[in-house]
């Protein structure tokens, strides 16, 4: 038997069938049912990036934004399939960091775990920031920081309760979002079918999708610029991977959730965006506001706009709630691997990683203070979402790379797998190339380039922390060896 960074693995079992140590006996509960998992997966696919960020992407990409979402969704689906095969090959894995550690080495688990934690911290910050913006729809003079910090306090209290409450919250949050988007699309179809003409003279028509220069209004540069916010819209799609340790029947729930991703993309992303473009015309969409709310405002239906604003506000709450859940669970996993302070592995009586939750919420609170520096909601949102996109891409890269090494080191497990990734290694490499391509795209835009230039600070910090951690572990091993020799 060999040890790997605090975990014990059977010899020859590279996937890491874990033998729980004494510290790991305090486990997360498998309280999430199939109903919860399906809704968490759907909720992860409908986030702030779609409701708030699609206005900006439409303004720079025109109708080609539909193509952007299809391309990103296509490749991200294969990332999720790779993740699904790895997680189901061994349900002892609690997070992506576990299989990254097993296949790429301790450094990968450390970098992936902390980067994913940071990813969701930043995402939660972005979500609570836009909640402040949504509230200004009803209360224009309300300072954005008031609803932002209020929502943080509410979500913190709710997450102190049992895991099942998180599942229930996400179930109802997601149900609201699904119902609203379906009604939104149906309303759009009705307006298009009746040839509705808005007060500003725009007639609802599918022809808006094919207007002259509407596809690439700012050329290839504009098309590529839309990728950053669009990528951010998909952050959360991988959330089912963090629920694996708390899912009652992962072999049934995870495949169902992952396999439904293409349908969700077509319905929630493509369907909704087509309706917005057809009803309002892309040129009328404001980059500073949610196009979902603006569509009904432009067509002269303020009551409907208010209802949609309520939905997008709950969507942001849902996404922030998911982020809080994900960060606390990631810290829990990192602590068990000795990649984070052991105190983060302590669970409350309700089996909630309470200390990790408190630490994560403190970080989100500090980050939300950007509203005092950059009071403009969309500016703050753009800065934050660009950083999130970079960390999301990095996370997905390591997931795919873990799959590639899994195929190389454990071919027998792939053969036995009942949930194989379509296209296998070929699609894994194609997906990896696409992810590299997205990094190049981020360098083309001024705002995202700033975030890209700042991101090395995080990775350099992680490198220093990892080296320090290795040094401490080595010192502990030497100390233990000396004690044994003394005895």
UniProtKB/TrEMBL annotation:
Pfam families from the UniProt entry: AA_permease
Membrane topology: Multi-pass membrane protein
Major localisation: membrane
TM region(s), chain numbering: 65-84, 96-114, 121-139, 145-166, 178-196, 216-240, 261-283, 295-320, 352-374, 380-406, 426-444, 450-468
GO CC list: plasma membrane
Single Gene Ontology BP annotation: transmembrane transport
Record's subcellular location: Cell membrane
UniProt keyword terms in alphabetical order: Amino-acid transport, Cell membrane, Membrane, Transmembrane, Transmembrane helix, Transport
Amino acid permease/ SLC12A domain ranges (all copies): 36-473
InterPro entries per the UniProt record, alphabetical: AA-permease/SLC12A_dom
Name of the protein described by the UniProt record: Gamma-aminobutyrate permease
Origin species: Acinetobacter baumannii (strain ACICU)
């Amino acid at each position: 038997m060999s040890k790997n960074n605090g975990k014990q693995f059977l010899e020859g079992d590279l996937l890491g069938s874990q033998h729980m140590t004494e510290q790991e006996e305090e486990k997360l509960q498998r309280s999430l049912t199939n109903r919860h998992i399906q809704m968490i997966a759907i909720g992860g696919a409908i986030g702030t990036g779609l409701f708030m960020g699609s206005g900006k992407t439409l303004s720079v990409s025109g109708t080609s934004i539909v193509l952007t979402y299809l391309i990103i969704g296509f490749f991200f689906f294969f990332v999720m399939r790779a993740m699904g095969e790895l997680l189901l090959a061994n349900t002892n894995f609690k997070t992506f960091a576990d299989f990254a550690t097993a296949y790429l080495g301790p450094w990968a688990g450390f970098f992936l775990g902390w980067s994913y934690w940071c990813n969701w911290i930043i995402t939660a910050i972005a979500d609570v920031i836009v909640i402040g913006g949504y509230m200004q729809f009803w209360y224009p003079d309300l300072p954005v920081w008031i609803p932002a910090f209020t929502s943080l306090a509410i979500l913190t209290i709710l997450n102190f309760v049992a895991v099942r409450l998180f599942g229930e919250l996400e179930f109802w949050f997601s149900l609201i979002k699904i119902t609203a988007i379906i009604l939104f699309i149906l309303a759009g179809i009705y307006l298009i079918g009746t040839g509705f003409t808005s007060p500003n003279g725009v007639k609802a028509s599918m022809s808006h999708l094919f207007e002259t220069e509407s596809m690439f209004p700012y050329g290839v540069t504009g098309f590529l610029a839309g990728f950053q916010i669009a990528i951010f819209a998909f952050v959360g799609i991988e959330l089912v991977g963090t629920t694996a340790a708390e899912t009652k029947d992962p072999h049934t729930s995870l495949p169902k959730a992952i396999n439904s991703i293409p349908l969700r993309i077509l319905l929630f992303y493509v369907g909704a965006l087509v309706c917005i473009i057809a009803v309002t015309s892309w040129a009328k969409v404001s980059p500073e506001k949610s196009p979902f709310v603006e569509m009904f405002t432009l067509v002269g239906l303020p009551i409907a706009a208010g209802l949609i604003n309520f939905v997008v506000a709950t969507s942001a709450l849902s996404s922030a709630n998911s982020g809080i859940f994900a960060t606390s669970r990631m810290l829990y996993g990192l602590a068990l691997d000795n990649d984070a302070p052991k105190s983060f592995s302590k669970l409350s009586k309700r089996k909630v990683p309470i200390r990790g939750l408190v630490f994560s919420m403190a970080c989100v609170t500090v980050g939300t203070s950007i509203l005092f520096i950059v009071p403009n909601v969309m500016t703050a949102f753009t800065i934050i979402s660009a950083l999130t996109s970079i960390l999301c891409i990095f996370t997905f890269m390591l997931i795919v790379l873990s799959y590639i090494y899994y195929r190389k080191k454990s071919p027998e497990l792939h053969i036995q797998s009942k949930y194989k990734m379509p296209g296998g290694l070929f699609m894994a490499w194609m997906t990896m190339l696409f992810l590299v391509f997205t990094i190049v795209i981020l360098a083309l835009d001024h705002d995202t380039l700033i975030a890209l230039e700042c991101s090395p600070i995080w990775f350099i910090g992680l490198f220093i922390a990892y080296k320090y951690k290795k040094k401490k572990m080595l010192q502990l091993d030497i100390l233990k060896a000396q004690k044994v020799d003394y005895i």
